[in-house]
């Protein structure tokens, strides 16, 4: 029997799961500074996992069939309402994550304006890529407006970009790349003056900034207390520290949410009625989020926010005092960005941090902005340990010298048209970039070719990706993901034959 299809005993399943997880980044301990967020509360984590398991088989498709899920969702929305200065009319929906929340904000704004034939939305250039994904999916043209020198949205320029096709204006609290809060009050006022919706992407800050304000920190207005803000997205699986798969999209009134719903009775089956992009929705993330939020409560989140912000401040101060690194901006929340100066290479710094057990996220250059490293600081992040590792990493990176892309290769990359690249050309680019096990990137088992792989040190790969035009970078990374997401070849012989 094929090892792909043969049954496994419970002990072997657990052993294989444990073995598979060995290659993953750690989700606890505060050293993975992207993708995961750790409160350091083992009992709450265990309770949340118990809740996920208990409701994993429940289906949010029909809230009348599983009223428990609706009750928990409404309770989470009510909890968020206290944080976001919401009016009594506010309503909300639990989604699978920040991207789905942002997608639905765009879809709802588009469908609320059937009179606009070529709808557009106005975005600062720091708006999350989820809005560009929404533009691609929903045919809403993205009008991108440059930000000011402090990386915040330019209200005057955004107001000037609004026209008769605009259905949505977006601001961030904070922006992901730079960790600063946009001037939401001015942006929302411009949108309101034009009769246009204003969405605030607070997927990162929604569960941090309200508590930061309670701790006495200066926080620019961004909630529903700001006139003109019509919707807000905030992720529960980020700084609410819930298990993955939970975000909230909140609307000021039910009328604003209504275009988000999809209903279809034009087929022989049940009348489809969906509040999100999904139909079937596991109850696991709902229950896991509810259990986490109710177990921690406002007092708990206040303390977690205090710890995360204190760690962020200490890390930012350490970066500012470290020769060769420069803060992109003083963080308004828990996100930190830093660029390298002189002969120091930021991608090599990221590699050196990984060698010391810390994952920091590299960000490519954008316009006049150089490449940077990015941190999402959790309540469990130890700022002293981080700063010590960073000091060592910077020294090692400086000693190693910068990784420089070959000028001839850079010139070749600039001349390539990604729209014309075939599979063989993409294979060659992956091989040249060191993203395959051998020089043959086809992954053809019969021919002995190597499959896609990430090298242990990524600075060289990132230097080439950074040098590539954005569209070519996208094409190469899509090709890499496409080749990565393929099953291993089946063994020779008839399917189901004995081993």
UniProtKB/TrEMBL annotation:
Cofactor(s) needed for function: pyridoxal 5'-phosphate
UniProt entry tagged with the keyword Nucleotide-binding: no
Example of a GO MF term: transaminase activity
Keywords, in A-Z order: Aminotransferase, Lyase, Pyridoxal phosphate, Transferase
InterPro entries referenced in this protein's UniProt entry, alphabetically: GrpII_AminoAcid_Decarb, PyrdxlP-dep_de-COase, PyrdxlP-dep_Trfase, PyrdxlP-dep_Trfase_major, PyrdxlP-dep_Trfase_small
Modified residues (N6-(pyridoxal phosphate)lysine): 238
Bilayer-crossing regions: none
Biological process, per Gene Ontology: carboxylic acid metabolic process
Sequence similarity: Belongs to the group II decarboxylase family. Sphingosine-1-phosphate lyase subfamily.
The protein, known as: Aspartate aminotransferase family protein
Species lineage: Bacteria, Bacillati, Actinomycetota, Actinomycetes, Propionibacteriales
């Amino acid at each position: 029997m094929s090892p792909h299809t043969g049954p496994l005993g419970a002990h072997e399943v657990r052993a294989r799961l444990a073995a598979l997880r060995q290659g993953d980044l750690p989700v606890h301990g505060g050293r993975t500074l992207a993708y995961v967020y750790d409160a350091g509360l083992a009992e709450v984590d265990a309770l949340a996992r118990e809740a996920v398991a208990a409701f994993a088989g429940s289906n949010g498709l029909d809230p009348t069939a599983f009223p428990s899920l609706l009750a928990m969702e409404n309770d989470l929305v009510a909890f968020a309402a206290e944080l976001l200065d919401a009016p009594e009319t506010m309503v909300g929906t639990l989604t699978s994550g920040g991207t789905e929340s942002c997608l639905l904000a765009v879809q709802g704004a588009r469908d609320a304006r059937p009179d606009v034939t070529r709808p557009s939305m106005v975005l600062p250039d720091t708006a999350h890529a989820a809005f560009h994904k929404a533009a691609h999916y929903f045919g809403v043209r993205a009008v991108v407006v440059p930000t000011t020198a402090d990386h915040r949205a330019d209200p005057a320029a955004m107001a000037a970009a609004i026209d008769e096709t605009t259905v949505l204006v977006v601001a961030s609290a904070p922006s992901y790349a730079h960790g600063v809060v946009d001037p939401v009050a001015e942006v929302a006022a411009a949108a309101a003056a034009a009769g246009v919706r204003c969405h605030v992407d607070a997927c990162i800050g929604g569960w941090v900034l309200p508590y930061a304000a309670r701790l006495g920190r200066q926080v620019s207005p961004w909630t529903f207390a700001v006139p003109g803000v019509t919707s807000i997205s905030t992720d529960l699986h980020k700084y609410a520290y819930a298990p993955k798969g939970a975000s909230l999209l909140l609307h000021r009134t039910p009328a604003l949410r209504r275009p988000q719903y999809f209903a279809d009775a034009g087929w022989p089956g049940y009348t489809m009625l969906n509040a999100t992009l999904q139909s079937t929705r596991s109850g696991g993330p709902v229950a896991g989020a509810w259990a986490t939020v109710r177990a921690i409560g406002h007092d708990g989140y206040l303390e977690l926010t205090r710890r995360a912000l204190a760690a962020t401040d200490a890390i930012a101060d350490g970066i500012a005092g470290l020769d060769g690194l420069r803060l992109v901006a003083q963080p308004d929340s828990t996100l930190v960005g830093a660029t390298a100066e002189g002969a120091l290479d930021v991608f090599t710094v990221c590699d050196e941090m990984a060698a010391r057990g810390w994952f920091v996220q590299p960000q490519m250059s954008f316009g006049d902005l150089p490449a940077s490293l990015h941190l999402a600081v959790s309540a469990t992040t130890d700022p002293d340990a981080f700063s010590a590792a960073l000091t060592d990493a910077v020294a090692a990176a400086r000693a190693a010298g910068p990784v420089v892309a070959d000028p001839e290769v850079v010139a070749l990359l600039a001349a390539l048209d990604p729209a014309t690249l075939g599979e063989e050309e993409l294979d060659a680019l992956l091989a040249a970039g060191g993203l395959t096990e051998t020089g043959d990137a086809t992954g053809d088992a019969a021919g002995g070719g190597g499959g896609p792989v990430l090298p242990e040190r990524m600075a060289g790969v990132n230097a080439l990706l950074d040098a590539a035009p954005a569209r070519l970078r996208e094409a190469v990374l899509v090709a890499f993901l496409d080749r990565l997401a393929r099953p291993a070849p089946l063994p020779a012989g008839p399917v189901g034959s004995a081993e």
